[in-house]
Amino acid sequence: MIFVTGATGILGRIIVLELLKRGKQVRASKRPGSNINEVKHSYSFYTENPDDFFNKIEWINVDFDDLDSLKTALQGVDEVYHCAAKVSFHPKDEKEMYHTNIKGTENLLYACEESDVKKFLHVSSVAVLDNFNEKGELDEDSDFNPKLEHSAYAISKHLSEMEVWRASAEGLNVIIINPGMIIGSGNWHQSSGELFSTFEDNSFTFSGGSAYVDVRDVANTAIGLMENNLFGERFIIVAENNRYADLARQIRTRLGLKEARILSQTELNIGRLANALFGWLIPKLKMVTRSNIEAISSFNTISNHKVKEKLNYQFIPVKESIDFHLNNYINDKKLKK
User: Fold this and answer.
1) Using an 8 Å Cβ cutoff, are 322 and 251 in contact?
2) Does the predicted model carry a pTM greater than 0.85?
3) Where is each NAD-dependent epimerase/dehydratase domain found (predicted)?
4) Superfamily of chain region 2-187+211-241+301-318
5) pLDDT tens-place string over residues 110-147
6) Positive or negative CA dihedral for 25, 74, 121, 79?
């Protein structure tokens, strides 16, 4: 039995689906209020027989603050894919994010100690990578630098990794993956699922960029790494490094919208000043922090060489990925009209 946490999220649901396609038994965590019908609907984008796969999932409500709940979820489980996490860059979410991402991971690993779990894959983020290699790229050896300013999200993912490495030192077979920005279908208004609505709703963009990867690639590489028992290592999972302006152009052109304007550094700094003065009054201004400005203004090259070499893997081109998922986004919007 394989246990997948965060199974209603944009990545967790596809790891579940890909495992089911391989004939595995899957137990999937959810919250009591989770909309699993939305998960079933999104499967229609990825397979011709979504109901057949969805009906094979053993759903279980899990409280990550309750060790008994976690121990129950792990009964009969020998592999864990830990996808559950809180993703946010808003200061109001910091406390919840630290609790969910760090304490939730710590509790899950503690529950694994008294179970039959033999393999554990942890989903982290490229946000924890800092030091550049001799090529000027970020890679698996780019350790987190605590002297630099980071978002609360990046700090929470770094500290989550520390919990996983601690478990590794105590004998658990672990793998950490560090995906870039995940492009997927469904869950359109949460976490990575907001990609298309964000570019649609905003007529401006930023000078920097990010590393992107299709959700199907993240799921398949994660499973491939576990099947190949590549323990005690981390793997960056990205397809390409792209500027926000290029993605905005592709998405907004397809939606029939005018090209987004790139905000200048001066405008961003004015926004940060406005946050200091009026953030208490206008919640959206709270997002304009120093670490967030740095993130949206920078454009680093992140290497995917290691995972491509280890698994002989070819990633879906970002343009192709955007076209596929944007088409699903447009079709879903039509369905709701």
Assistant:
1) yes
2) yes
3) 2-228
4) NAD(P)-binding Rossmann-like Domain (3.40.50.720)
5) 999 989 999 999 999 999 998 888 888 999 999 999 88
6) negative
